[in-house]
Amino acid sequence: MSILIKNGTVITAAGQQEADVLIVGERIESVSARGTNVQADEVLDAQGKYVVPGGIDVHTHMELPFGGTFASDDFETGTRAAAWGGTTTIIDFAVQTKGQNLMDGYEAWRTKADGNCAIDYGFHLIVGDVTDQSLKEMDIAMGEGVTSFKMFMAYPGVFYSTDGEIFRAMQKAAENGATIMMHAENGIAIDVLIAQALERGETDPIYHGIVRRSILEGEATHRAIKLAELAGCPLYVVHMSALEALAEVTNARDEGLNVFAETCPQYLFLDLDDLGNGFEGAKFVCSPPLRDRAEGHQEALWSGLATNDLQIVSTDHCPFCFEDHPELGRQKRLGEGDFSKIPNGLPGVEHRVELIYHGAVAEERLSLERWVEVCATTPARMFGLYPRKGTIAVGSDADIVIFDPDKHHQLSAATHHMRTDYSCYEGMEVTGGVDTVLSRGRVIISGDQYLGKKGDGQYLVRDLNQYLV
Ligand code: DUC
Ligand code: ZN
Ligand code: ZN
Questions:
Q1: Which of 89, 172, 181, 269 has fewest C-beta within 10 Å?
Q2: Residue 239: which pLDDT band, with cuts at 50, 70 and 90?
Q3: Distance of CA 148 to CAs 101, 166, 191, Å?
Q4: Secondary structure (3-state) at 71
């Protein structure tokens, strides 16, 4: 089976080209000057549209157990929603819980995902219990293509690791060339502030945003960088929200350290005010929290993306329903009367590629090439998938989005495909939208039709971070 994508403008991180793309089977066969006489079984006309690499979301939490419930998207619904939004690869987080072997977490997440994904997928591993055994198992995980390990400086009693535990895992990562991914918030200090707020009767969701102070994200980021520097391992700071944290990463990178960071659309578009309005604010509870716009975090993050102090936009997709759900039960409402019991996380996997196009390209903050770079190419290189993924080149997987820059649409829970009963972007007008999506040479989205199916997505064995200095 061959498909020719004709008449489009091919955008990669390296530049733009008026070119036709020939796909044979699952791979890109040729990228040739527009109008070259190439024959194919099927022709897709991309006149007036961009032809870009499929999005790669390196931070999702399908079915994550959290706060007495589970993230509401499973691998089937979540990867389908991702496809609708132009994402053709996810890297999700398998979880090792306390007392469990590390590889048991990996096996459990493979069981949840295998046969259920509509797009390709890989895993990072959350190291939830640093022991001699789990450190040894980090070697085994590398053999399975899990080359990145997430740790938490937040959530004492749940995912939290002490500095000593973090340092031991970092030493192991340094031996293997693995990347440590860090949730950098000082969870111990935050827990003191949570208890004090609740004692004062401050129970609404807005206090989630107030107690999780940005200075505590900056402090934890600094500490993580110093520990990684000493251990000699690459560090990737996840879901950065605060300008104090960005300053730490910028300094580290200026010193030539292997320090990297991502942010997410929620930190670029939403803010502390969204956490107001009584319990409605629970819809916006995630950690780190949405920040006060007046403090300049959002503008700092956009400029970090422009200067490459921030390299990736991921989603931290971790959805929960607002109203009680017939199958999932209580989700956000678990935290009525106590903000600290609201499950943390937002739906987002469907909207990242379009939102970043809107905020970056349509609103003229970043170039087309940089949009592709932060949404696809750098994620592929950072997590060992390039050049199989993240670009449009001969031999690469035919994961391709035909993107219509002239499409205007409104984001809404009524039309999205994520399994949540609300949208964080309800009513927002977005310029630019996904038209057609191909995953390894198969058309899985065509206009308003979903043509994918669960089980078509393959597990990805990943290589090491390709940016190490
Ligand atoms: N933050 C969230 O908002 N949800 C899941 C875990 C996390 O770190
Ligand atoms: Zn996190
Ligand atoms: Zn996360």
A1: 269
A2: very high
A3: 17, 14, 27
A4: coil
> Residue 95: what residue type?
V
Q: Which two tokens stand for residue 6?
A: 């004709």
Question: Is residue 370 a contact partner of residue 363, using CB atoms and an 8 Å limit?
Answer: no
Pocket probe for ligand 1: among 186, 275, 286, the residue whose CB has the most ligand atoms within 8 Å is 286
Residue 230 in 3-state DSSP?
A: helix
* 107 CA from centroid of ligand 1 (Å): 22
Return d(Cα 192, Cα 194) in angstroms, integer: 5
* E strand map for 202-335: 235-237, 259-263, 312-313
Question: What is the C-alpha separation between 250 and 260, in angstroms, rounded?
Answer: 9
What average pLDDT does the segment 393-420 reach? 98
> Distance from the CA of 436 to the center of ligand 1, in angstroms?
31
Cα of 452 vs centre of ligand 2, distance in Å, is 30
What is the pairing mode between strands 449-450 and 442-446? Answer: antiparallel
Helix or strand or coil: residue 108?
A: helix
> Does position 209 have pLDDT exceeding 90, yes or no?
yes
* pLDDT reported for residue 469: 85
Pocket around ligand 1 at a 6 A CB cut-off: 61, 66, 183, 286-287, 316, 318, 344-345
pTM for the full model? 0.98
The predicted structure's pLDDT at residue 35: 82
Report the nearest-CA residue for atom 4 of ligand 1.
345
Which of 219, 225, 215 is closest to 249 using CA atoms? 225
Alpha carbon distance 60, 318 (integer Å): 7
Domains delineated in the chain:
2-52+393-450 (2.30.40.10), 54-369 (3.20.20.140)
CA dihedral 102, 232, 287, 366 (to 10 degrees): -120
Rounded to 10 deg, the angle between the 214-231 and 243-254 helix axes is: 20
Q: Which residues of 302-460 form beta strands (DSSP E)?
A: 312-313, 400-410, 429-439, 442-446, 449-450
Rounded to an integer, the average pLDDT of 366-378 is: 98
Please give the pLDDT value at position 168: 98
Per-residue pLDDT of 78-92, as tens digits, reads 999 999 999 999 999
Contact 410, 430 (CB under 8 A): yes
